[in-house]
Design brief:
The chain is mainly alpha-helical and 121 residues long. Helices cover 64% and strands 12% of the residues. Strands 1-3-2 form a three-stranded antiparallel β-sheet.
Length: 121
C-alpha cells in the first residue's frame, strides 16, 4: 500500500477520492498524464487495495476503500493525506510515503498492526 501511495500522481488520485462523495470516474480527476498512464496508476491503486473499481457500461467508477484501510492500517491513510494537505505538494507527501515504505518503517507498521490485533483478540 505504501508503494502505491509513494507516487505523486497516485497520491493525488487518492486525495481527490478522499475529498469526493462516493464514486468518481477515472476521467473526472484532472491529472497531468496520458490516458494510458492514468489507467496504469488506477491499476496500481486497485491491486494495492487502496481503491475499489466497478464497471458500469464502458465507465469505471472508483471508490476509496477508506474503511478497509483504516481497519487494516489504523490512522495511516489519514496521516498520509494530512501530510499531503500540509505540504501543499503531492511530490513532498509522496516522498514522505516512500520514506514510510522503507523496510524499517514497514517493520514498525507490521509490529503495530500485530499489537493491535493481539489487543483486540
Amino acid at each position: 500500500m505504501l508503494h502505491a501511495l509513494s507516487d505523486p500522481v497516485r497520491l493525488r488520485i487518492v486525495a481527490e477520492l478522499a475529498r469526493g462523495d462516493g464514486e468518481c470516474t477515472c476521467g473526472s480527476i484532472d491529472l497531468p498524464v496520458t490516458k494510458s498512464t492514468c489507467t496504469h496508476h488506477f491499476k496500481v491503486l486497485r491491486e494495492a487495495g487502496v481503491i475499489k473499481q466497478r464497471q458500469v457500461g464502458t465507465t469505471r467508477l472508483n471508490t476509496l476503500r477508506r474503511e478497509d484501510l483504516e481497519s487494516r492500517f489504523p490512522g495511516l491513510l489519514e496521516t498520509i493525506l494530512t501530510a499531503a494537505d500540509r505540504c501543499g505538494s503531492d511530490a513532498t507527501a509522496a516522498k514522505a510515503a516512500r520514506a514510510a515504505a522503507s523496510p524499517e518503517a514497514t517493520a514498525k507498521v507490521a509490529a503495530k498492526v500485530a499489537a493491535n490485533a493481539a489487543a483486540v483478540a
